[in-house]
Amino acid sequence: MVSDLRTINVTKRFGGITALNSVNIRVEPDSIVMLIGPNGSGKTTLINVIAGYYKPDKGHVLFNGFDITGWLPHEIFKTGIVRTFQIPRPFKKLSVLDNLLLAVRSNPGESIINALFRAEKWKEREREALQKAYDVLELLDLERVKNKKAAELSGGQLKLLEIGRALMAEPKLILMDEPVAGVNPSLAHEIMDHIVSLRNTLRLSFLIVEHRLDIVLDYVDKVYAMSHGKVISVGKPSRVISDPQVVEAYLGG
Amino acid sequence: MIDILRIIVDFTAFYSIYLMLSVSLNLEYGYTGIPNFGKVMFFAGGAFTVGAIAGRMLAPLAGIDLSKLDYCMNNVYVGSLVSRYLAQHAGLALAVFIALVIAGSLVGAFLGWLASYPSIRLREDYLGMTLVVSGELLRIVSLNYDPLVCGTFGAKTPNPFSFLSGFAMDFTRSAFMFTIAMLTWLIVGRLVKSPFGRLLKAIREEEEAAEALGKDVVKVRMKVLMLGSAIAGAAGALYAFYIGIVHPSDYAPLRTFIVWVMVIIGGAGNNLGAAVGALIYLFVDRTLAIAKTYMPVLPFDLNYLTYVFLGIILILVLIFKPEGLIPESLEVREEIREEASQ
Fold it and tell me: Looking at the predicted structure, is the pLDDT value of residue B295 above 80?
């Protein structure tokens, strides 16, 4: 699965505030890229622009050579980009299992005609999806709660459910907004291990926004540091975190 | 004895109509979260279809030349001649009945599409307001535009069951209506248990997350509003045939809110709940209507007590069972899981 994401001079303003100022980033095929920066530096805005929730005022988003600037979120999903939310957004009254099953790509049972008259068509798909969902549940240690309402999960479990839904969607690139914030360290390491193995086996790419540098930094290939809507540093993790500009942005604001 | 049977048959007819309305609102609001405060518009759409077409279409067959006669001034007369003609042609009468119910639902669906087109992108509250207004719009236009359902005169609808008479006619008519309503209930029940139903609930719960998972939320909402409105349109057509006249002022916003009360009492997001809610409303309404005939003359109309009783029931339900008498259930997908493990 090839995935190559670039943003070219992406600018996004909200009233007088420039949330993104000519941002250029690239997530190469088979790579795990991390986005760091103090609060309000524009990381989530960038995710929202890439995923189609905001239209940029200027610039382009390219994915595998397609210009996907200004596409709607569900159209961007079709290209293979899946996002997770910083504050989990579960379907609260659905079971954990249903939350996962919903994420399945192009389910024939989601058309009225098929749902009513062609049960054999979607039941087959549902069975495959179920097998996959069990794997995801096992991986994220959510098996015990699979038949609970999503509303009953703990904060950490909701984080995992967000990731689980993204994995169900056969993505090429996952945009993760703080995937391990609020997750206990050992599970956080497991998640990151798993992200690496997904990259290696399924060749998925990841763009991860995260503040937990201590946990995530060891797993990533490249880091972008942002401050005030601009990319201030890029490169290998060790280089970026010792960059004086980055240190100043984090410590000096 | 025949009295009780008559009451049951009449009850069944009204129940069929309200069951369809409450099922359709439950599909829109209970499952998908669309605040359809314009239900009456789609109901009226179906009823007006019958009112506008049935008499005019069948008059030539009954030997009436509408070019020599003002239809609206004489529509009661024309209607009864047409009914008499239909009494001799049972097959045609039933075909007309079915065709017009289908036409009513198509008009409902069209109105649903029309109403959704500019407004479905709006936020919940604004969408609700837009729908209330559209409903009133249709009523006011039809009240003042005679070619539709003869404005303030109202249009008489011919009786497609006039080939029977007395109790046999009432029974057959109610049986037809109940069959259509049950079919609707079963179809919607099947739909909401499928992945489509899961998608609807997901959209209701977290619209943006559903979009992030590739769901075209606007399109799904439109489909639901069209389907719900088609059901309401069919219910309107049945109603028009049942009460025998279509009068615009019968389609006031109050009707919408009665259906809301049914859904909230019964249980939003539960298909059985919608059926129970409609049953409770109709039980109160019909009991009072019957009681009225046995009561001595009272200084007020007993029918108005319906609203008092419904209000009390609504408040009690909201206090003690806020999710309705039969709340939304958690889908466990046990069945498919068993199949999967085999």
Answer: no
Residues of chain B with Cβ-Cβ distance to A147 below 8 Å are 330, 332
- Count contacts between A and B (CB, < 8 Å): 114
pLDDT at A98 > cutoff 50:
yes
Q: Tell me whether residue B258 is in a domain.
A: no
Asked whether residue B337 carries a pLDDT value surpassing 60, the answer given is no
List A18's β-bridge partners, or say none: A13
User: What are the tens digits of pLDDT across the range A168-209?
Assistant: 998 999 999 998 887 888 888 988 988 898 889 888 999 999
Instruction: Give the pLDDT confidence score for residue B335 in this predicted structure.
Output: 55
Instruction: Provide the pLDDT for residue A155.
Output: 85
Q: Could you read off the pLDDT of B11-31 as tens digits, one per residue?
A: 999 999 999 999 999 999 999
Contact flag B190-A73 (C-beta cutoff 8 Å): no
**Backbone region of residue B244 per phi and psi (left: phi > 0; alpha: psi in -120 to 50; beta: other values):** left
Q: How far is B135 from chain A (nearest CA, A)?
A: 26
**β B155-156/A81-83 pair status:** unpaired
Backbone dihedral angles phi then psi of residue A176, each to the nearest 5 degrees: -115, 120
Task: Check CB contact of A39 with chain B, cutoff 8 Å.
Answer: no
| CA B243 – CA A105 distance, rounded (Å) | 48
Say whether residue A73 is in contact with chain B using an 8 A CB cutoff.
yes
Among residues of chain B, what percentage have pLDDT more than 70? 96
Q: Is residue B327 part of a domain?
A: no
Q: Give the domain CATH number at B93.
A: 1.10.3470
| ipTM associated with this complex | 0.88
CB contact under 8 A, A112 and B223: yes
Amino acid B147: pLDDT: 87
Q: What are phi and psi of B231, to 5 degrees?
A: -65, -45
**Which residues of chain B does A85 touch, with a Cβ-Cβ cutoff of 8 Å?**
208-209, 212
CB contact under 8 A, A126 and B187: no
Q: Does B16 reside within a domain?
A: yes
Which tens digit of pLDDT belongs to each residue from B139-170?
999 999 888 888 888 889 999 998 998 899 99
Chain B CB contacts of A127 below 8 Å: 336, 339-340
The domain total for chain B is 1
From residue A213, how far is each of A34, A48, A51 by CA, in Å? Answer: 9, 22, 24
Q: Which residues of B touch A90 (CB under 8 A)?
A: 205-206, 209
Report the alpha-carbon distance of residue A233 to residue A36 in Å, rounded: 10
CATH architecture of A5-90+155-252: 3-Layer(aba) Sandwich (3.40)
Q: Which domain holds residue B172?
A: 2-252
**Considering the domain boundaries, does residue B62 fall inside one?**
yes
Query: What pLDDT does residue B342 have?
Result: 45
Q: Which has more confidence, B187 or B335?
A: B187
Contact with chain B for residue A115, Cβ under 8 A:
yes
Q: CA-nearest residue of chain A to B216?
A: A74
Domain segments of chain A as ranges: 5-90+155-252, 94-152
Judge: A90–B209 Cβ closer than 8 Å, yes or no: yes
Chain A residue whose CA is closest to B340:
A127
What average pLDDT does range A225-249 have in this prediction?
91
Rounded alpha-carbon distances, angstroms, from residue A202 to A29, A198, B299: 11, 5, 79
Q: Tell me, what amino acid is at A139? A: L
Mean pLDDT of chain B: 90
Query: Cβ–Cβ contacts within 10 Å for residue B18, how many?
Result: 24
